[in-house]
Amino acid sequence: MKTYAAKAGEIERRWYIVDAQGQTLGRLASRVAHVLIGKHKPMYSPGLDVGDFVIVVNADRIRVTGRKMDEKIYYRHSGYPGGLRAFNLRDYLQRNPARVFELAVRGMLPRNRLGRKMLKKLKVYAGPDHPHVAQQPQPLEL
Question: Can you give the residue ranges of every domain in the chain?
Fold first, then answer.
């Protein structure tokens, strides 16, 4: 028997939708990263992007455990001397809740050009509305 290797033309992509309301940030992010990478498919190949598209709605209603709201810190640097800015999770969720989820998933993807390609298939929205109705997304079983 020979090992099956997926080819770029054979990859079939599906669209999934996930409601983040009441879900734990890290647990949901790991499941979404699993789908973006394509490990849920039998044709998974580590060198190819075989994953599916994932739409996450209600990112502003995600929850975290413990004292992470005040103790988890996000850093950003402008590139200038003294340009380091720090925000805790509570402030960052109020400012940009979609970005919080994107950063959580981004940390679970490969750190190369393949990981950047996978991250482009993630669509995160703070509210319940999204513009991807034409793709007919299926609910993702978590």
Answer: 14-64+96-139
